[in-house]
Amino acid sequence: MMVSYRSGETSGRGTAHPHGGRITAQPSASALGPPIRREVIPPHPQASVRVLTHDFPSEICGWGYHPEYEIHLITKTRGSFIAGDHIGTFAPGHVSMMGPNLPHDWVSDLAEGQVAVDRDAVIQFSDEWIRRASENLPELAEVSELLQRSTRGLVFSGATAWRAAETILACVHSHGVEQLGHLFKLLALFAHAPVDEYELVASEWVGRPTDAASRDAGEAGLSYILDNLTGDIRLSTAARLAYMSEPTFSKYFKTATGMTFSNMVKKLRIAYARRLLDTSDDSIAQIAERSGYHNMANFNRQFLAEVGSTPSAYRRLESDQKPPPELFSLGLRAPSS
């Protein structure tokens, strides 16, 4: 059985380091996991930035936000990621940059009990630090537009992505001035990336659920969907888990995620079905069942609406003919400029 592990479903391995290094899986306090949280990233007296690797699942994973910029590399596994109102898929080599306070999460498809060791390589730095550095280093002015773009989430591709992956790992394995040098190289690479090698993924107006009710509805709903993606999913159950009435839950869930509960379920299920079509030899009927669809006509209709082709037609396409995950998984398509 394949399940999507999230924060709160861990193997009980390892410990967390408060300032950087490597974070491994930790047991959770509850099956549902904590509500969407403002992650507190404590400053280190001897480091300007936080650089770390961590396993999946681990206590650091989960739908959350923080005031720091985050550069993120996936080194192994496939799955779905959420950034604001965007739902996409990832594979090894996935490189992204998330701006301050943009909720995000990467959820791997793992066998039950499996842990992906060092799945993530992460670099985090504060807006205050990069702004103050820019005051003393005028050369950093060239990254100001990059910082602004990142507030909507950036996903890189092509040569930019693989060069960035190498530089992120170099940053992980270095210290001091050498580490900062790799970070500045990385920012320059992103700032000068060709327009066809990056995409802004989230809409400008989403990504900052500041009230507790929206945060709780978003986390409870996403946890429930991801834990039951291949089974029966009901709005009434999600609302009960959030301790809300159905109308109240629906309102706050959309505020938090940028889309309705039913649309989120559909997009995550179709994204999962697409990966099964790409990576397995299962029949279309088996994939529909594994993706939570028990009616083939409904599955074909939903897949066609999201991807632009039927599942069977999609499977016959060559890899370079298939739409990128970002094109069919986005709810509210962000404009390109």
TrEMBL record:
It comes from the Bacteria. SMART domains: HTH_ARAC (SM00342). InterPro entries: AraC_XylS_family_regulators, Homeodomain-like_sf, HTH-like, HTH_AraC, HTH_AraC-typ_CS. One of its GO terms (molecular function) is sequence-specific DNA binding. Keywords: Activator, DNA-binding, Transcription, Transcription regulation. CDD domains: cupin_MtlR-like_N. Signal peptide: none annotated. Residues 1-40, 316-337 are annotated as: Disordered. Residues 219-317 form the HTH araC/xylS-type domain. Pfam families: HTH_18 (PF12833). This is AraC family transcriptional regulator. It comes from Intrasporangium oryzae NRRL B-24470.
